[in-house]
Amino acid sequence: MGRYREALCRICRREGAKLFLKGERCYTPKCSFERRPYPPGQHGQSRRRKISDFGTQLREKQKLRQSYRLSEKQFKGLFNAASRRKGVTGEAFLALLERRLDNVVYRLGLCTSRNQARMLVAQGHFLVNGRRMTIPSYCTEMGDEITVRPKSRQASAIQHAVSLGRQAPSWLSWEPETMTGRVMSLPGREEIDTEVAEQLVVEYYSR
């Protein structure tokens, strides 16, 4: 997405939800959202205005987009792809977001944030089915193997993230000995812990 120059914690406060944008810091008492859970700005604590239906849909869309750190163009492109699939559009949309390579790397616990995951993928630290992959938006499929390149296994960022021991979701498996993850199945809604009302996002784009 376009370069964002403000503090990432302001995004969480603006959306009224903890989006875990700063990785490890978000799990500590230093998290700005924990200390100031109200919108940024001098009037943040005094805002009490009623939000319209459109405003509610917009905020939910922005919250989901910022969670996965995508530009509006990327985000809407994935929504359009989901809308052409059979089944519930909102659930198909979340599944496509989860299947992005940068998100899979994040879910496997190989980095502390999606921003860091995108950077590490772009730098070529990972193999997909034995081939070097540098495209963060690559859509993984069931059976794909994601492996840390042998030369990258001692990288401090990856070593630190692995040491935190974050658990991979049930649709992914992780083998620490070979530093290899596998997409065991496509993610269902019950396996995605992103706290969002995806139907509101569908309604926003269906206006």
What is the H/E string? Answer: HHHHHHHEEEHEEH
Q: Taking all residues together, what is the mean pLDDT?
A: 86
The class by helix and strand makeup works out as alpha+beta
How much helicity do the residues have?
A: 40-55%
Gyration radius over CA: 18 Å
Keywords:
globular; five-stranded antiparallel beta sheet; alpha+beta; single chain
Topology record:
Layout lengths: L7 H8 L16 H4 L17 H16 L3 H12 L5 H11 L1 H7 L6 H9 L3 E3 L2 E2 L12 E4 L7 H8 L8 E4 L4 E4 L14 H8 L2
Antiparallel strand pairs: 1-2, 1-3, 3-5, 4-5
Helix pairs in contact: 3-9, 4-5, 5-9, 6-7
Task: Provide a short characterization of the protein structure.
This protein has 207 residues and is α+β, with helices and mostly antiparallel strands. The protein has helices at 8-15, 32-35, 53-68, 72-83, 89-99, 101-107, 114-122, 156-163, 198-205; strands at residues 126-128, 131-132, 145-148, 172-175, 180-183.
Question: Mind explaining what this structure looks like?
Answer:
This protein has 207 residues and is an alpha+beta fold. The protein is 40% helix and 8% strand. The protein has helices at residues 8-15, 32-35, 53-68, 72-83, 89-99, 101-107, 114-122, 156-163, 198-205, and strands spanning 126-128, 131-132, 145-148, 172-175, 180-183. It has a 5-stranded antiparallel sheet, covered by helices on one side. A hairpin with a 2-residue loop joins strand 1 (126-128) and strand 2. Helix 4 (72-83) packs across helix 5 (89-99). It is globular, with a radius of gyration of 18 Å. The model has no long low-confidence stretch (mean pLDDT 86).
